[in-house]
Batch of 4 targets.
Target 1
Amino acid sequence: MLLALLLILAALGAGMAAVGTVWTTVAQREKEAELLFVGEQYRRAIESYQQRSPGTDKRSPPSLEALLQDQRFPMPVRHLRRLYPDPMTGRPDWGLVRDAQGGIVGVHSLAEGAPMKTAGFTSVQQGFEEATSYREWVFSARPPESKAGGAEAAGSEASPGQPDQRPRPARVPGGGAGAAQQTGGMTSIDRP
């Protein structure tokens, strides 16, 4: 009788372990889907901020808070509904990609884990397939088009079959949190 009870408990333990593994995988995939959604919200908000810049000088936002209340107009403009936390870490901290003037041109997660999703990304998310960390999923705005350099800006976008030229954070061995990294004219800062 005692042996049968031990066998039943062992079977239940193995079943619970399998359910736990499946639940962890499902939760991870949901967080990744949320990261893709939230990252796209930030990317679109940054592009909106750049496109709506007064005059011909298209600027990037100096902070994420500027996406909530754009004070450059008589009536403040909202490019983003709210500041979203990073779904992978659960914290409001994001890695920021800045341009030469210090404006934010992209965001990325500060999570270290390797993505489960490796295919099925949109054309705007080119390069995510090769990512080995969530930090490499950089949601960056397309360079703003100015009236003086419209042809140059249009030529900088990726053509079908060619890799996307938007900034990506550099892989620096030992580059921990808070490290600033120069990336093709852009600086990636791990913490805002």
Target 2
Amino acid sequence: MTNRRKRIGSQGNPPADGSRSRTFRTGPARGGPVWLYGRHAVGAALANPERRLHRLLVAGEPPSPPDSPRIAAEPVSREAIERVLPAGAVHQGVALLADPAVEMSVDEFCTAAALAETGLAVVLDQVSDPQNVGAVLRSAAVFGAGCVIVPDRHAPSVTGALAKAASGALETVPLIRAVNLARALAALKEAGFWCIGLDAGADTPIGSAGRFPRTALVLGAEDEGLRRLTRDGCDLLVRIDGHGPLASLNVSNAAAVALYAVTRGAGGAGQKR
């Protein structure tokens, strides 16, 4: 009924000799400075010591004006802010030009998770809309996930729109880019994670999935769902049952529901049935 697959290194201990090759990028993020906007996104970036800050533009007196000892605010008009941002950006009178945050690799996350008693990760398979990825980051932060993993290709760049949708979560939940998503799932398994994929056609409802000390939720794009290799890399496929006339949820909403389902109850994901 369920498609539980053979676990790899279920005790979560990395090889003692460090023989597993590093296939994931680490260190500074690629790309130059990017404009962030909106009070939550800008405020969180100002509080992140890993961010290198370049310019802080403030129009008028926002209800919660950003403040940072690391950079002085430049008083400007709203029109001046709009000139440096994409058309239609809801900036709330603040914009910050900053370097991308330092990236974490899948290996680094797995090494840290292997030493912890519990862990939670979200894996997105070719979810390309920055608003959706940002919303998933926000839900991941609310429910205590340690990271959101996306493929190196077929995933959006970290833009101001993504940061705005994340509402500050981009500074607290690492967005990790994996060169190969199937290998990323294998690395998570080595670190003791149980990989649960969301699939509308799965036999098991998510409420019956049980609890696992370390859980990785795997979600696909809204139209295509999980790709075959990604689906094959999951230990278990589950579905979210609805009761209304619509057949499915937006991927960011599905992520929020799934995160609640696997963390609900005393101890959340740390409780196993």
Target 3
Amino acid sequence: MDGKTILCEINPLAFLEVDLPWASSTQEKPTPEAVLRFLCPAEERFNFDIERLLGRYRQISTESVRLFVAPAEQRILDKLIWPLRNAKSSFMVGNYLATVSLSGMVSEMVAMLLWEITASQINGRAMMKKDEEILFGREFENLGQDRRVKVLLA
């Protein structure tokens, strides 16, 4: 060693209050605080503050017009509404990578929804999947993000 102290995190992927064999040794039920500690980033895990969590919620909840109701259509709920809620809650607990990932996924789903509800036509008839393949080289949903944006703009 070169005299430097090496710090390490003991089993950072484990939720010790739930995972065996640790959980069986205590026989205690995990508390809501233990769940929050597991969800929060490493730097806040042992010093999380409910006010900081609520502050992040307020920070990400600044839209002037809020969604009042969502259609009870399962695909919209599964692909748009719940992922957006999960992105918001990820931001709230400080999981910014998940926030960005989920937001990107929702953007992709919105692009595909826009394509589906657009009555795209070719030669006076509704465009079919085979038409998409001929025009774009593959079906719309299999295009890259940049190409999908260009198609939607056109």
Target 4
Amino acid sequence: MIILALDTALASCSVALWRDGAIDAGRFVPMDRGQSEAIMPMVRQVMAEAGAQFADIDLVAVTTGPGAFTGLRIGLAAARGLALAAGLPCLGVTTLEAVAAGIPAAERIAGTVLVVLETKRADVYAQSFGAQVIDDDLKPLNSPSAVAPESLVHAVGSGVAGRLIVVGSAAPRVVAALLQAGVPASLGAAPGLPDAAVIAGIAAWRWRPGQVLAPPAPLYLKPPAVTRSLV
């Protein structure tokens, strides 16, 4: 099985090609903007390095959010366009679970994983995942949400199994808020951004050849930070 995975949802751009249990080729470049110009050349580079043709691909995977409004649309449009042109299924993976899955299994089974991502506002995108790994997949403990760090302190202050591992771009300030409130927490070692290589692995766990998928839709937890002129 061959999977092409893409991500442009946050402050990076990445592409990876997964083949039969391993990443054949991949690119990951941190960037705040410019993903629309970078994504398709990156796809071509990864495909060429892996020696793969689009006819070889079985599945396209892409992040669905939450994340930057424009970034989500870029990645989803690219993935759905590639899938449509090649007649392939397209599977969506949230940015929160992609970041959580970047934690080594030996670390995440030691406790509860809390993923927190910056929204560029006072609140954060957040979701918790269970300590155990189910069929190599993560077990979400709640739904993705946009919450203030103060509210998050109350939400995770009770019922945490084992060590609380916090990862993501907002992890430093959330850990500081948790510790100040007396909630034991520690920073995880995983990167704070989704990586297409991890997304491809998640897709490989979840999809089976022949499985029919609805086109992935963006996960927006709040409206875009723009206003429409009435003039």
